């Protein structure tokens, strides 16, 4: 806290389209090594950490993207952690 982040808005910069992130920070090892992908045929989302080997799968719908798989994983992980 207290850190002032530089404005990320640069008016006039030629940034047309943001590429959606598919690599995220791991909840277990805190490394940015979690990659997500969604199988278009089955709509199953896959997530795995390249550092600690955590894995997760979930059913997705057509409007979900990689970050949604990551969100599902966070929810599932929190459920496990608070499940008593
Ligand atoms: Zn990890």
TrEMBL record:
Transmembrane segments: none annotated. It is found in: Nucleus. Keywords: Metal-binding, Nucleus, Transcription, Transcription regulation, Zinc, Zinc-finger. The keyword Hydrolase does not apply. GO terms for molecular function: RNA polymerase II complex binding; zinc ion binding. GO terms for biological process: transcription elongation by RNA polymerase II. Coiled coil: none annotated. It holds the Pfam family Zn_ribbon_Elf1. InterPro entries: Elf1, T_Elf1_sf. One of its GO terms (cellular component) is transcription elongation factor complex. Transcription elongation factor implicated in the maintenance of proper chromatin structure in actively transcribed regions. Belongs to the ELOF1 family. This is Transcription elongation factor 1 homolog.
């Amino acid at each position: 806290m207290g850190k002032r982040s530089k404005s990320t808005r640069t008016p006039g910069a030629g940034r047309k389209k943001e590429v959606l992130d598919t690599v995220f920070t791991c909840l277990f090892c805190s490394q940015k090594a979690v990659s997500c992908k969604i199988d278009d045929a089955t709509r199953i989302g896959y997530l795995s950490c390249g550092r600690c080997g955590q894995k997760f799968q979930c059913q997705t719908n057509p409007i979900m993207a990689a970050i949604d798989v990551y969100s599902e994983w966070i929810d599932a992980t929190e459920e496990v952690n608070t499940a008593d």
